[in-house]
Fold this protein.
Amino acid sequence: MDKTAVFRVDASVEIGLGHLTRCLTLANALVSRGIRSCFLMRSHAAGLVHMVEGAGHAVQLLTDPARRSPETGDDALPHAHWLPTTRQQDAEQTCSALAVIGAAEWLIVDHYALDARWERACRREGLRILVIDDIADRDHDCEMLLDQNLVQQMETRYRDRVPAACVQLLGPGYALLRPEFAAQRSLLTPRSGKIGRILICLGGSDPTNETAKALAAVASLAMPQLVVDVVIGSTNPNAASVDALCRQMSNVALHRGANNVAELMRRADLSIGAGGVMSLERCCLSLPVIAVDIAANQVPSLTMLARLGALIHLGSATSVTVQDIAAGIASLGADASFMRRLGDVAGALVDGEGRKRVCAAMDAWPAT
């Protein structure tokens, strides 16, 4: 491999794992194009290096300051606190890392705390920039922008945020899902609409322990025939308490850092989950969902998916109660035809081949 892509992405309990997961998916897909990848991550993400290196990619950690000093002031971005240092310092460290890495074709940036000013500071001859974004709240200086979410005004919301020549890859047709989702989709059989198996998964970190709330809702229904799969990430700070809850219930299996989420989604009849990348994964497998948003950036996409009839969105996790979730399960359990419609609508939105389309667009640049 003689071509290189550099990814600038972070992960933590606050940031979650979704940004890193989708970047890994793209990096894995680029291998077949003869492109090797190096990930630049802040040193606070050192505990996740194994995820990247285990997939065959290189990692360089950007040293965090001894004391956190995130950017403040009128020109600070809303997510500036995601960095332990200033945007300028991060750009300087990134440029130093790029100098060590050598010639690279693409710099791929997936970070809400970085914008056009950072991107301009990192520019060098022959380097193209691909930004992965969801929230359209800041300007970018990039050759290509990817937003895989389905939201209102999807086609226009970056119009004044990127250069006129920027190639925009918009919508779930470009969803960066791992290959196993397309593989499991090919194994799907028509869903009956009946609820016998529930998948509970509320993100890689779930700092407010919405998983426990979902478990309590299932337990309150007193439906011993239900089989429940609970998935939590390796960074979940409530792993011990979730494990204890699962042990107290019958027919409940806990999966920590599961690598077979696609299979679990295919086998489930209903999911209780949040937004983010997992919304697109569930759509790919036509899985009906009772969703709560656990971050503000999840609201636009969940709202649109609910409007289309692809899921049930109960609202913010901070206000949704155990009783709300239990009532949602009971209501869906009494309406198999509605359950089937939810799955059919969701499945028509995402086919699981988005990573291939993104790679093809990168290959074709600038003629895309």
Q: What stands out?
A: The longest helix spans residues 87-101. The mean pLDDT is 95. The first strand starts at residue 3 and ends at 9. The two ends are 24 Å apart (CA to CA).
